[in-house]
Design a protein that fits this description.
The structure holds 2 protein chains of 2 kinds. By secondary structure, chain A is an all-alpha fold. Chain A folds into 3 domains: 47 residues; 157 residues, no CATH class; 141 residues, no CATH class. Chain A has 16 helices and no strands. In chain A, helix 5 runs parallel beside helix 9. Chain A is globular, with a radius of gyration of 22 Å. In chain B, helix 2 runs antiparallel to helix 4, helix 9 packs across helix 12 and helix 11 crosses helix 12. By secondary structure, chain B is of the alpha+beta class. In chain B, strand 16 and strand 17 form a beta hairpin. The longest helix of chain B is centred in the last third of the chain and has 33 residues. Classes of the chains: A mainly alpha, B alpha+beta. Chains A and B meet through helix 1, helix 14 and helix 15 of A and helix 2, helix 6, strand 8, strand 11 and strand 24 of B. Bound molecules: protoporphyrin IX containing FE (HEM). Protoporphyrin IX containing FE sits at the interface of chains B and A.
């Protein structure tokens, strides 16, 4: 026997989850737990039993997320530090937003969101620049910008949450209650999903395309806040005062974000497929990721989106049962959620059971984005119903 | 004969076919769109106005006003459910086989033909290789079977079989959700309507007058309806809306609303709606007390009571009717919302229908700087005034004066149909904060004697100034003053324009109008001065006084189009609110939730678990060595399986083959 016994043993032994964790991972868990205990000690008086359950479940979810995707750890810590800094700078006066330098130019929610907006657009341009010049460092810079945009954006939301209480304790609510706030959430979730796939597939050439949809959202956001004064923090209407909002809306936006990402990767698929047909040595056929990789990412994104959209729709039904007295009322927003869901169910069936691949499925995923967009925006703009909270 | 499938097989093939499934998914999606574009369950008259009678009838026949209960829509849904059921039924044996069978009978040839396969010759004896493979696969979480025959051993292993349960759970979950939905649906009602046992009531009559054919017993299996209960009142029925009518659904208990509250934010927006409820049930020793609010319902005996909305519950309003015409007398009315009152003192019969009272009215206003703001302008009463012919105008009158550009007015909105926006009458508030000066001015300009007197006075004084004495001219001027004033008092400026149009040729109308207006204005001013004298004001009139005059004349000008012989002033009120409850019994809810849980778990199993199979085929060779074939397959996620298989194969290679020992330090990633 020439192979040492312990080597074979080590090959045989699959290290258990806990053995695979590093010291840093344990540190991460400790930080999350400490933060949870702190929040619990400080605010448990203001939370109802459901919110305590949500908080208790958030901690393990965050820990698991950080263990699964290491980059999530420094990211969350950066967000936490910036948010706490913002909150600390505010003290107990909302007026500080215009007075204190650190708030006025960095961490008040409006400034942080402006930074996010600017950085996303800049990152989009940089990604494309890196792609066209085939310059690795430029692409790396673009990733870094995206990370910073995400830190600022998330900080903006966290600080906004605090601001809502600062303006009037009665107004206080999680910032996922109107179109302005969820648009920010959309940018953030889509950005995070993209960075995850970027790292997973070690490929930065999709960045510009995915960030294009984020930049479009940013453009809308800016128009909406300047033209319609949408950034103003207003109290919640009674129907929205529910713990359900805290889970229903974010779950929905994981869905929307993933679908948007899938549509953009499908655009790249079409470009590459065309490039391979027309000019196999050309830019599109050589610089862009392989069709197999894009196809894989698209499928994974749609699967993730579908799973979360399923949960979100079910949570929505449960909320509706509590707020309106019926889990399903065929209200336009509900119905459009169903339409989006059925559309992707059809997509998945075609792919899985009929084995469809390639260009038609890519087109379908792009059309899917428009259906999703209508469910998300169009319904609020054109149709009225029980869900008319985020009217333009 | 043998090759042609029977009809039932063909039917099952059709129902369980993927093409049908995908078609149905898309068809349901498209059909659902209709109901989001066409607003559902509106009053039928609205549709009739919107579409005209041809399209109205066609759309009604197609069930487009309640698409999601239309027979054709339900049929598509039923098809979808049947298709899923067929599909699951057909696939289940295969799934079970897939889960049970390890495929230890696999042929060497087919293993070698697999996409993921690797063969090697090991220096280990067959038995040792076999135990190594077993331990490795066990550690990787595989379950396995082993078979030795014809001089070789096959270890057939698999894991992730729950992926197939994923398929089963998702699809059965959808069926369960649909069945739960069916339990709560109105299908039984629709069937009973079909059989002629039930018809919805369409008249607006008290619940106690609704005939039995539109009443549903307290034992109904499921329902969802509404009722408005005024504070201090009870109800044991709810109304189930059905197309253009409703059913009266009885409840197995009585609900009393002890109190209803709206709380407001500092901005004036509502913050919460709450009702203090008492449930009276003979099964209860004492009434059950509970406060409900939006998002916090009460569930009693499987029946859920939700705070849905609120409205007026018959508030008491004291109204003062100021006549615009001197022929009528002022009168007071003690009214209640939702009651009708006959007004007899006028020469025409009117019916006053009090429709609503509102304590808060948040309206778009301008602040001092001219910026649009939302502002609460206080209580209002809404009523209709119906004349003998049945024509009605709707009014909304605000109790408190509203300040507009620094000037205070009593405001009354008027419209002839609900589709129109309100047009407003602004009556200026006098120096004492009341409506008296305006009313006195109005009655004075209808008083021929007084108009004449003041006309004579002004003419004289202006003529004295001009030092021209001409009784004939004076008489003419005074006469036209009186005539024009009377005309204005009854028909407004329009009346005068009309008269000019009748009496003068086109080219002279403009100059005539100018002259008329001058005369009229002089007369009105004279009457106004006289009016103030009656109040005891004889000093020079201030700018504010003249502003009041201008506003009054603008208001008087509009009276003829206002349509009411009175200005109805809300002088005091006692608010009685009604809580709008939605009351449901939905036994299917838990079924739906159960199905949803199945669906959720199933979806995650489908996407995130892969059914992986690995075979290790071992054949002992003469020299105490063995030949090994490792092969594998997965039903999902091929790229990932490829990585996995490569590392698995490397492990085998490292453990079993000597030569590779040197490179083993590069490790397997
Ligand atoms: C609302 C309706 C439906 C939904 C939401 C739904 C959902 C799904 C999902 C999410 C998958 C997994 C796809 C994947 O693995 O990526 C799937 C697979 C599948 N569905 Fe459906 N489905 C529906 C209706 C149907 C119907 C009507 C049929 C029958 C004709 C059907 C037959 C199948 C089959 C055969 C698979 C493949 C299972 C496998 O590969 O293991 N589904 N379905």
């Amino acid at each position: 026997m020439s192979v040492p016994q312990e080597t074979i043993e080590s090959l045989l032994e699959r290290p258990s989850l806990f053995k695979r964790l590093t010291l840093q991972d344990w540190g991460w868990a400790a930080v999350v737990l400490a933060a949870t205990v702190f929040v619990f000690a400080k605010y448990s008086g203001a939370m109802d039993v459901y919110e305590i359950i949500i908080l208790t479940l958030t901690a393990p979810a965050l820990i698991a997320q950080g263990w699964y995707w290491k980059a999530f750890q420094p990211y969350s810590i950066a967000v936490a530090v910036c948010s706490l800094l913002g909150i600390w700078l505010y003290g107990d006066s909302y007026a500080n937003a215009e007075v204190v330098f650190g708030l006025k130019y960095l961490f008040s929610s409006q400034s942080a969101i402006m930074w996010m907006s600017a950085l996303f657009v800049l990152a989009t341009v940089t990604y494309f620049g890196g792609l066209f010049t085939n310059h690795a460092f430029t692409l790396k810079t673009a990733s870094a910008m995206t990370w910073v945009a995400l830190v600022m954006g998330f900080t903006g939301l966290m600080v906004r949450w605090f601001e809502s209480y600062l303006i009037d304790p009665d107004f206080g609510h999680i910032p996922v209650s109107n179109l302005y706030e969820v648009f920010i959430l959309f940018c953030l979730i889509t950005g995070l999903l993209y960075l995850y796939y970027e790292e997973r597939y070690k490929n930065r050439s999709l960045g510009g395309f995915v960030l294009l949809v984020i930049s479009a959202a940013v453009a809308f956001l800016l128009w909406y806040s300047f033209e319609r004064d949408a950034a103003k923090i207003l109290p919640l209407v009674p129907a929205l005062k529910s713990y359900w909002m805290k889970i229903h809306v974010p779950a929905n936006f994981v869905g929307y974000g993933a679908f948007a990402l899938a549509a953009m990767t499908s655009v790249v698929y079409l470009i590459r497929a065309r490039g391979e047909r027309n000019n196999p040595q050309g830019f599109a056929a050589t610089r862009l990721p392989s069709l197999a990789m894009i196809d894989d990412i698209t499928y994974k994104a749609i699967a993730l989106g579908f799973a979360f959209f399923t949960i979100a729709t079910i949570l929505g039904a449960m909320w509706a049962a509590e707020a309106w007295g019926g889990y399903w009322s065929w209200d336009p927003k509900e119905t459009w959620a169903l339409i989006v869901w059925l559309n992707y169910a059809a997509w998945l069936h075609l792919r899985f059971s009929k084995g469809w691949r390639g260009v038609p499925m890519a087109w379908w995923a792009i059309v899917g984005l428009f259906i999703t967009l209508f469910a998300f925006l169009g319904v609020n703009m054109f149709l009225s119903g029980l869900h008319s909270y985020g009217e333009l | 004969m043998k090759n042609t499938p029977s009809t039932s097989t063909r039917l099952i093939n059709f129902l369980g076919s993927m093409n049908l499934a995908i078609t149905l998914l898309v068809v349901v999606a498209i059909a659902s769109i209709i109901g989001t574009i066409l607003k559902q369950n509106q009053p039928y008259t609205d549709y009739q106005i919107k579409f005209g009678s041809f399209w109205f009838d066609l759309f009604r026949m197609l069930g487009l006003y309640d698409v999601y209960s239309a027979v054709w829509f339900l049929t598509i849904l039923a098809f979808l459910v049947i298709s899923i059921a067929t599909c699951v039924g057909r696939n289940t044996p295969g799934v079970l086989r897939e889960l049970r069978h390890f495929r230890e009978n696999v042929q060497e040839k087919s293993l070698r033909a697999m996409k993921h396969q690797h063969n090697l010759t090991t220096h280990l004896p067959a038995a040792e290789a076999q135990s190594f493979a077993q331990r490795l696969l066990t550690n990787q979480g595989f379950r396995m079977r082993q078979k030795t025959a014809d001089g070789h051993t096959v270890i057939a292993a698999m894991k992730g079989g729950s992926n197939h349960w994923g398929y089963w759970l998702t699809h059965i979950g959808i069926i369960v959700i649909c069945l739960g939905g069916l339990m709560d649906s109105r299908l039984p009602l629709m069937v009973a309507e079909w059989q002629g046992k039930l018809t919805p009531e369409t008249r607006n009559i008290p619940a106690s007058d609704v005939p039995a054919i539109s009443q549903l017993p307290a034992t109904s299996f499921s329902y969802r309806g509404n009722v408005d209960i005024p504070e201090g009142n009870r109800a044991n029925i709810i109304f189930l809306p059905m197309r253009d009518g409703y059913y009266v659904q009885h409840l197995p208990f009585e609900v009393e609303v002890k109190a209803f509250r709206v709380e407001h934010y500092s901005t004036g927006m509502p913050k919460s709606f709450e009702s203090d409820l008492l449930i009276h049930d003979k099964d209860l020793p004492a009434p059950l007390e509970k406060t409900i609010s939006v998002n916090h319902p009460l569930i009693y005996k499987g029946i859920a009571l939700y705070q849905a909305n609120f409205g007026d519950g018959g508030s008491e309003v004291k109204l003062r009717l100021h006549p615009f015409s001197t022929r009528y007398a002022a009168q007071d009315l003690d009214g209640k919302v939702f009651r009708d009152y006959n007004l007899t003192s006028s020469e025409q019969q009117f019916k006053l229908e009090v429709n609503d009272f509102r304590l808060f009215n948040i309206n778009d206003m301008e602040d001092e700087a001219g910026k649009a703001i939302k502002k609460n302008i206080g209580p209002s009463v809404t009523f209709k005034l119906r004349d003998a012919s049945g024509q009605a105008m709707e009014y909304q009158n605000y109790m408190n004066p509203v300040s507009i550009k620094g000037q205070n007015y009593y405001i009354s909105g008027v419209r002839s149909t609900p589709a129109e926006p309100f047009r407003y009458l602004h009556i200026p508030v006098d120096a004492k904060g009341g409506i008296e000066r305006f009313m006195r001015l109005l009655s004075n300009i209808q008083d021929a004697e007084l108009v004449k007197k003041s006309a004579v006075e002004t003419t004289r004084s202006s003529m004295q100034e001009a030092t021209v004495q001409n009784p004939e001219v004076e008489k003419q001027v005074v006469e036209s003053m009186i005539r024009l004033t009377m005309l204005f008092a009854t028909k407004g400026a329009d009346g005068i324009t009309q008269e000019i149009a009748e009496r003068f040729p086109q080219e002279k109308q403009e100059s005539a109008s100018e002259a008329f207006m001058k005369v009229l204005n002089a007369s009105l001013r004279a009457v106004y001065v006289e009016t103030l004298k009656q109040e005891g004001i004889t000093s020079e009139l201030s700018e504010a006084d003249w502003q009041f005059f201008d506003d009054s004349i603008l208001a008087i000008d509009k009276i003829s189009a206002y349509g009411s012989p009175w200005f109805v002033q809300l002088s005091s009120f006692t608010q009685i609110e009604a809580s709008g409850l939605q009351i449901t019994r939905s036994p299917g809810k838990d079924v739906v939730y159960f199905g949803s849980a199945m669906l959720t778990i199933g979806v995650f199993l489908l996407f995130y678990v892969t059914h992986r199979r690995v075979w290790v085929w071992i054949k002992p060779l003469d020299n105490n060595q063995a030949e090994v074939v490792v092969a594998g397959s997965a039903n999902r996620n091929q790229p990932e399986f490829e990585l996995y298989f490569n590392s698995l194969q490397k492990t085998f290679q490292q453990a079993m083959v000597q030569e590779v020992q040197d490179v083993s330090s590069t490790g397997n990633n």
